């Protein structure tokens, strides 16, 4: 990881805290009440800042602006991986539809999750008229145009839709990934073609390994005259202390008005295993940053109820609360041992299945 100067850290931290303050003020003092609009709506003529909370109606999860797309989406997203790990298919469908009923309309997924089962379950949950209530995102592993195009067609079939709201290049976790994606015959060719064909609305990328790889991907996009609509990355209480996406990448995304998708608020279960923080503290901390959406795994109605309770009664952490949480995690976070997605291959599906980078065979 690149060693950043003290001045660099200071600038990143000031930028971060400035936006956190604006977000908290918006959530507490400038929230507006308005009828809940469909996922196809764009922002008002004078859109709120990225991450600004907009209360839709009493008893529902607030919505935030998804960067320069202008679309308002729920600030909490249903993690797709866990939909394939529920007790049965019926429970996954119930989770999705209950989430929609309470204002959670952002649905995460990936071509490779649980061998395609996660996408299939989401597709069934969105049948019978529910598709128009949701903002659907999925991710592709393919680094070549052919593999990405093949994976996309499978995702469209599983999700039972002719258009996916957001498709992201999955697991940009190697320094070689940006060039592979943007090279002639690379995945970006397929994604742009699919967007022109109306199969994809917006394009983004994800990664969890190192902020420098994210920055390299953003630079590669700049070099090719392309701007991502969204970027997904870890945003949690320990990230602030180690290989910090919040310090190094978040200010860049905000400056470019790219929608920020936070993930790994609890590091799967590992951050909770540290004993330093509770699940509620983890979610509140991440939601108090300028993310457009925090994607969280939900594999039972009990976990959904927890997310709904935090979302519908959300109050951003003030600076005192934030500093207290960071102080509790500072020593434990120094080696990245509780953020295993950064320091091991435990979460790297394309390392465990490298064929997915060049094939549409699951």
Task: Give an overview in words.
It is built from 16 helices and eleven strands. It has 362 residues and is of the alpha/beta class. The protein has an eight-stranded parallel barrel, surrounded by five helices. It has a three-stranded antiparallel beta sheet with strand order 1-2-3. The longest helix is centred in the N-terminal third of the chain and has 24 residues, at 6-29. Mean pLDDT is 88; it is low at 1-47.
The backbone outline, from C-alpha atoms, is globular
Task: Please give the share of residues in helix.
Answer: 40-55%
> How many strand elements?
11
Order of adjacent strands in the largest pleated sheet = 4-5-6-7-8-9-10-11
Which CATH first-tier class would you pick?
Answer: Alpha Beta
Radius of gyration, in angstroms, nearest whole number: 19 Å
Question: Mean of residue pLDDT?
Answer: 88
How would you summarize what this structure contains?
This protein has 16 helices and eleven strands.
Features of the shown structure:
362 residues; 8-stranded parallel beta barrel; 16 helices
Secondary structure: elements and pairs:
Elements: H1 6-29, E1 53-54, E2 63-65, E3 72-74, E4 76-79, H2 80-83, H3 89-101, E5 106-107, H4 117-125, E6 135-140, H5 145-159, E7 164-169, H6 177-182, H7 187-196, E8 200-206, H8 211-223, E9 230-234, H9 245-248, H10 250-256, E10 259-263, H11 270-273, H12 279-287, E11 293-297, H13 301-312, H14 319-333, H15 340-343, H16 349-352
Parallel strand pairs: 4-5, 4-11, 5-6, 6-7, 7-8, 8-9, 9-10, 10-11
Antiparallel strand pairs: 1-2, 2-3
Helix pairs in contact: 3-4, 4-5, 5-7
């Amino acid at each position: 990881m690149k060693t950043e100067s003290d001045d660099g850290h200071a600038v990143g931290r000031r930028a971060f805290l400035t936006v956190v303050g604006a977000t908290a003020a918006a959530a507490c003092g400038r929230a507006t009440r308005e009828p809940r609009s469909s996922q196809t709506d764009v922002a008002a003529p004078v859109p709120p800042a990225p991450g600004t909370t907009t209360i839709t109606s009493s008893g529902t999860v607030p919505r935030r602006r998804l960067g320069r797309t202008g679309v308002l989406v729920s600030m909490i997203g249903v993690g797709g991986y866990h939909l394939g790990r529920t007790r049965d298919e019926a429970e996954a469908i119930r989770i999705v539809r209950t989430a929609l009923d309470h204002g959670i309309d952002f649905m995460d997924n990936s071509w490779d999750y649980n061998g395609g089962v996660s996408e299939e379950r989401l597709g069934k949950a969105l049948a019978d008229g529910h598709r128009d209530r949701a903002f659907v995102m999925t991710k592709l592993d393919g680094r070549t145009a052919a593999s990405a195009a093949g994976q996309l067609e499978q995702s469209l079939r599983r999700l039972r839709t002719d258009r996916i709201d957001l498709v992201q290049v999955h697991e940009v976790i190697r320094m070689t990934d940006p060039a592979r994606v943007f090279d002639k015959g690379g995945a970006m060719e397929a994604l742009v073609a699919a967007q022109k064909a109306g199969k994809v609305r917006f394009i983004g990328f994800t990664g969890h390994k190192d902020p420098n790889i994210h920055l390299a991907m953003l630079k590669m996009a700049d070099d090719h005259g392309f701007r991502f609509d969204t970027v997904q990355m870890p945003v949690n209480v320990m990230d602030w202390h180690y290989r910090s996406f919040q310090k190094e990448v978040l200010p860049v995304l905000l400056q470019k008005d790219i929608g920020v998708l936070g993930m790994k608020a609890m590091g799967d279960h590992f951050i909770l295993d540290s004993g330093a923080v509770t699940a509620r503290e983890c979610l509140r901390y991440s939601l108090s940053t300028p993310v457009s959406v925090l994607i969280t795994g939900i594999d039972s109605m009990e976990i959904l109820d927890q997310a709904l309770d935090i979302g519908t009664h959300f109050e951003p952490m003030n600076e005192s609360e934030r500093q207290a949480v960071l102080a509790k995690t500072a020593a434990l976070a120094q080696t990245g041992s509780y953020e295993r997605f950064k320091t091991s291959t435990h979460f790297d599906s394309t390392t465990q299945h490298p064929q997915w980078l060049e094939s549409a065979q699951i």
